Amino acid sequence: MKSLFATSINPSKVHLALLLLRVVVACTMLFHGIPKLEKLLAGDFTFGDPIGIGSGPSLVLAAFAEFACSLLVFIGLGTRLATIPLIITMLVAAFIAHADDPITEKDLILLYLLVYSVLLLLGSGKYSVDNLLRKNSAVKATASV
Question: For position 141, what pLDDT does the model report?
Fold first, then answer.
């Protein structure tokens, strides 16, 4: 029972939590990104223009963030960089495109924003391509010395 209320951090559990967080959020965001990518590939550029750059560029940026960046987050490659377009997309969605909507209609957007912010701060964790690349570059650096 004591462990249920412990406040210490177990690094191996943190890495597992980061893996679960990355995989689940990436998979759920892909449900939003795939239709945008399909629309883009079909040549249908009708889309909102929340920041005044045109509906086509807005669609391209949203599809890039929600599809391509979600794939990067899923595998843990360039995770911190990949979260930046996702954070920007969620900020635009929550505070510009859905600014007048009640909080109950944008709570999912805000949850995505929170998760991407956590991933930006903490990175992808041990179970990621980022970590494999870091290990390989450390081995190469050691071998060349």
Answer: 64
